[in-house]
Design a protein that fits this description.
This protein is mainly α. The protein has five helices and two strands, in the order H-H-E-E-H-H-H.
């Protein structure tokens, strides 16, 4: 069986209910840009292997992964690779870094 890595994550409830100006999940005007980039990459891969309008298979890769499977793989890889950059990871995990900053001040 493949190894399964689990981590304990604490979610600041103040941020979920927007108490005390805790806006940890308020990305760029409500849009997570990194997720949109990953979505666009997945959509592009979908359209490169399959044309849903004409029902035409454009690549033999479709026969192994299907368009949806390839989309999930590409989107996941793009999201993970983008998260390897420190500034992007800081953008995604705003809650972690803001809570860490509060602990260092206290």
């Amino acid at each position: 069986m493949w190894p399964l890595n689990l981590r304990i994550v604490s979610v600041p409830l103040r941020a979920l209910y927007k108490v005390e100006d805790a806006n940890y999940y308020n990305y760029s005007k409500g849009f997570n840009i990194i997720a949109w980039i990953s979505f666009a990459a997945g959509l592009t891969s979908y359209l490169l292997v399959y044309n849903p309008i004409t029902d035409e298979i454009k690549s033999d890769l479709f026969l192994f992964t299907t368009a949806t499977g390839l989309t999930m793989i590409v989107s996941s890889i793009v999201y993970i690779v983008l998260n390897l950059f420190k500034t992007i990871n800081k953008y995604i995990r705003q809650d972690f870094y803001k809570e860490k900053k509060k602990e260092n001040i206290s």
